[in-house]
Amino acid sequence: MTIGLVQWLIISPNVSDAKQMTDTAEVLNEALSQEREWLVAFGNGRTFPLVTSEIELRRRGTKILLEIPTDNGLRCWRITTADKSETEITLKTESAAGRRRETIRLIKRTPAAEMQLNIELGRLRRANYFAETLRDWLKGSRIESVSLNEKNGRMANIFISSGKDERLVAIADVTGTLRAESILTATLSLLERLRQRTRRPVGRSLIIADKRVAGKLSNLRSLLDSRAASVFEILEVDETTSPARLKPVPQKSLTAVLSARATSLKLPGHVTVSEASRRIININPAAIDCISSQNGDTLRFHGLPFARVRASAGRTLIWFGAGKPRTLLDETTVSRFDNLLYELGVIRQAGSENKKHMLYSALPEAWLESILRRNIGLIDANLILSPIYNQFRTASAKIDLLALRRDGRLVIIELKTSPDRETVFQAADYWRRIELQRRRGELARHRLFDDFEIADRPALVYIVAPALDFHKDFDRFAKMLAPEIELWRFELHREWRSAVKVIERVSGRI
User: Fold this and answer.
1) 132 to each of 121, 144, 289, how far by Cα in Å?
2) One domain, residues 411 and 344
3) 376 pLDDT more than 90
4) CA 171 from chain center: how many Å?
5) How much is the pLDDT for 62?
6) 503 and 374 in one domain?
7) Residue 480 · residue 225 · CB < 8 Å
């Protein structure tokens, strides 16, 4: 419970007094420094803990910026208003362009347990709201129980007895933050367990989702075989009316999905690696590579970004750092840049003696991707990597690697270095997007593989991971895919940083 919430300070977007802005930033930082840890809570209910050193508040011109690490990387917001109570700091923020507003609460860790309880109660209220909506839609049905899933409490499990003497389970995301792949894997896993019960088994499932997620779930359902697609139904919820309304989402065939209009592929113009980037690459060309875009170059050491090169007002600017904050390279910081490169060379290498160090453990999938970008033949000698792969990756889905076999078949390569239950359906959705582009001739039109011809056959999917890092449900989910999706599992030797070796290649159909 918030105690005595009072207006603490208001930061006007038009403030031009630099001293006032500096004083305000200092007041905020002083308040943060009073605690070692904070619980960060977003308006959608998502929370995670941070130590004070991970929260950066700084002034830039007439703005005060908040930077914190999130699941999607480092995020930056502009603070417009700040409130303070005995237990928390509430920041009203907006994105750099001012288009998106977010309320972020920094809560002292002392009342974190109470906060977690409030979050759970809020999610349960949301779950019961969905249950009541479902009961009104399923005439003659009875709600047996409503609970949150045991794993993370983000999904509601609603058990229903219908008038047809059928027992159903409905799944709903009570946080509004889950990906369609997460909801689908959770639904299929729960349903399999429930259908194996000898006493009162559950026959099928209902998934309740808003229009955006329901559309993505519908696309995923079209990628399943007929048996897997028939065990659940998708209900689109419209909460703009009172009471909310549910509408079944018609099942689309894979043929219909792949006949849809493909978005025109717009690749960035031709980009070249800057001279400054080339000089840095030459320091250690076996470890450093460059991802170029129209915004500039990002230099990586075995996949870990450590420098960014940008052209500004006729000058070349270089910022360096393996995390935040980054430092501008100039005469006064060149020794720190040299030290960073030395540390990367010692720590981020296969024979490192400090494998718990962040420089070694960070971004392992990017490390594997950087190795295969240099030599895609390590997993299949018949593969050719797209020469304009960087631009394509920027303009399309976040596909790890896109290659072409010498017989002309496209290959979508998804890399994993830790078990991920969503891998199969994530890769299948990439397959759908690439197939749409291939069938519409977009990939050939942009000459993704120069003069090599792309065969008129569906793309292949390669899932590449260390042998012990495939999720235990991988094979079960792979067998649920439509027969048109040919998926292969490439198991690597565990010491892939030293040498990438494929120890087994298995079809997803086996």
Assistant:
1) 17, 12, 55
2) no
3) yes
4) 22
5) 75
6) yes
7) yes
* Sequence-ordered list of residues with C-beta below 8 angstroms from that of 193, at least 6 positions apart, any chain: none
Say whether both 353 and 380 belong to one domain: no
pLDDT above 90 coverage of the chain, percent: 55
Whether 244 and 122 share a structural domain: yes
pLDDT, one tens digit per residue, over 448-466 is 888 889 999 999 999 999 9
Measured distance CA(284)–CA(97) in Å, rounded: 38
pLDDT at 405 over 90: yes
More confident residue, 453 or 196: 453
Residue position matching structure tokens 């993704």: 448
Q: How confident is the model at residue 200 (pLDDT cuts 50, 70, 90)?
A: confident
Tell me how far apart the alpha carbons of residues 394 and 100 are, in angstroms, rounded to a whole number. Answer: 22
Domain that holds residue 105: 6-110
- Residue 265 inside a domain? The answer is no
pTM: 0.77
Average pLDDT, the chain: 86
Buried b / exposed e along 288-315 (16+ C-beta atoms within 10 A):
bbbbbeeebbbbbbbbbbbbbbeeeeee
Question: Which helix (H) or strand (E) element contains residue 64?
Answer: strand 63-70
Cβ proximity of 80 and 146 under 8 Å: no
Q: How far is CA 424 from the centre of its chain?
A: 15
Start-to-end C-alpha separation, the chain: 55
Whether the per-residue pLDDT at 250 is higher than 60: the answer is: yes
Same domain, 168 and 96: no
Query: What's the rounded Cα separation, in Å, for the pair 183 and 338?
Result: 46
What is the residue type of 38? Answer: W
70 and 52 assigned to the same domain: yes
CA distance 9 to 21: 11
Q: Which helix (H) or strand (E) holds 79?
A: strand 73-84
Q: What is the pLDDT of residues 286-336, one digit of tens each?
A: 999 998 877 789 999 999 999 999 988 788 999 999 877 789 999 999 999
Q: Beta strands 63-70 and 502-507: pairing type?
A: unpaired
Torsion of CA 356, 501, 417, 482, to 10 degrees: 180
Total domains in the chain come to 4
Residue 270 belongs to a domain: no
Final residue before a domain boundary, out of 345, 360, 375: 360
Share in percent of the chain as helix, strand, coil (round to 5): 30, 30, 40
Which of 186, 217, 252 is at the close of a domain? Answer: 252
